């Protein structure tokens, strides 16, 4: 198997945007359910707690809403993922090129 090394400054901008968008999708698809659990714990009423911990949130969410409960509000997040992560990837790579960092 041959390895092909491409220098950072040789990667085309459209590819950087594509890689950024795909990485954004992958990140949110895998981390969104965890983010839902975290958000429910953070917004629990102080002193009158509804949840005892993460496992309790998971059990309650699944019992009441099924797997869909872990993806409530996912549409706006995934719509924003592509442009936001594409721009971040592109800006980072352009900055590294300007600084002549390989």
TrEMBL record:
Solcar repeats lie at residues 11-98. InterPro entries: MCP_dom_sf (IPR023395), MCP_transmembrane (IPR018108), Mitochondrial_Carrier (IPR050567). One of its GO terms (biological process) is mitochondrial L-ornithine transmembrane transport. The keyword Coiled coil does not apply. It is found in: Mitochondrion membrane. Signal peptide: none annotated. It holds the Pfam family Mito_carr. Keywords: Membrane, Mitochondrion, Repeat, Transmembrane, Transmembrane helix, Transport. GO terms for molecular function: L-ornithine transmembrane transporter activity. Transmembrane segments: none annotated. PROSITE patterns: SOLCAR (PS50920). It is a multi-pass membrane protein. It comes from the Eukaryota. One of its GO terms (cellular component) is mitochondrial membrane. Belongs to the mitochondrial carrier (TC 2.A.29) family. This is Uncharacterized protein. It comes from Pichia kudriavzevii.
């Amino acid at each position: 198997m041959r390895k092909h090394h491409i220098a950072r400054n040789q990667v085309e901008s459209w590819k950087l945007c594509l890689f950024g968008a795909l990485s954004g999708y992958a990140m949110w698809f895998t981390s969104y359910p965890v983010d839902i659990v975290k958000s429910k714990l953070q917004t629990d009423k102080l002193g009158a707690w509804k949840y005892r911990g993460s496992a309790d949130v998971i059990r309650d969410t699944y019992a009441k809403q099924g797997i869909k409960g872990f993806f409530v509000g996912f549409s706006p997040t995934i719509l924003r993922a592509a442009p936001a992560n594409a721009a971040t990837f592109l800006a980072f790579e352009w900055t590294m090129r300007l600084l002549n960092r390989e």
